[in-house]
Amino acid sequence: MNDIVQLLSQPWPWYVSGPLIGLTVPALLLFGGKRFGVSSSLRHACAALLPAGRSDYFRYPWKQLGGWNLMFVGGMVVGGWMAATLLTSSDAVVQISAATVTDLAALGVTHGPGLVPEEIFRWSSLATPAGFLIIVVGGFFVGFGSRYADGCTSGHGITGLATFQLSSLIAVLGFFAGGLLVTHVLLPIVL
Amino acid sequence: MSPTTVTTPEEALQAEARPGLLRFLVAGIWFGIVLTKSEAVSWYRIQEMFRFQSIHMYGILGSAVLTAAVSIFVIRRLRLRTTYGDEIHVPGRPMTPRGTRFWLGGTAFGFGWALLGACPGPIYALIGAGYGVMVVGLLGALVGTFTYGMLRARLPH
Q: Do B82 and A30 touch (CB under 8 A)?
């Protein structure tokens, strides 16, 4: 038993975790005919939180259409907690390539323990220009862009590509155009 | 349960609102664990991906797409139904005349993905994993969603 926990506590290689992520698609279809996608939860949350009638985009029966999706993302919070507390040691370091470590060091980002750089993802860094840009502006574009494009990495990148949608291929190319621009042009300026 | 065919919008809404939401909580827990253990939630891994310095993220996305495609093929070939007995459809994302919303919206999303190092799924998983400041990232995403909703009529699609 301890051996199993020990094994599961290691990072799961991509050829194990990738197919397991992919299996979420048939699971949701068989559980209730739901199309796998995460970012629509943002729309449902806005529809639930905002006074009705601010925009047509948020005026629809969100409980019926989005209740399952809000339960799903609520489960993801629990899943993240379980993976971090039960299946990961607190000093675990994400084993990124040496080239990435070097590139990030050149930008002044230390490669330390944890899933994200603790020096950026802490409350006090919200008051710094770089921290505000990464967390607040980054979050804004994640929400704005995924709703404008009608999907994110899950809805377009996985479900859309798996069903051969041209729209999803274009969206994924857009994801990379935007991501490459930020990584290679914007981050060297602001970090 | 007898198989049903969805025809009217009212029936479609009823089919959407079947009881038993707890199963989606379980599915979410599963997805949250797998996503976290895959390290796809890691800002470091997203930086590595956008620098083309490892196969890791491409392997995850590629094998996930392949698994999903094979699963959908099997579901269609065997005409599998949901646990409620409904037929299974995977709604497409129809192209718009110029596809503007997909490339422009996609590029905007890419800005956010590279900055925050997380797409919507990882935001939720990271909050659970104890990165409390990600709640601010989620609030930012909700403001972004609200902004899109308010500007939608004026944006090219």
A: yes
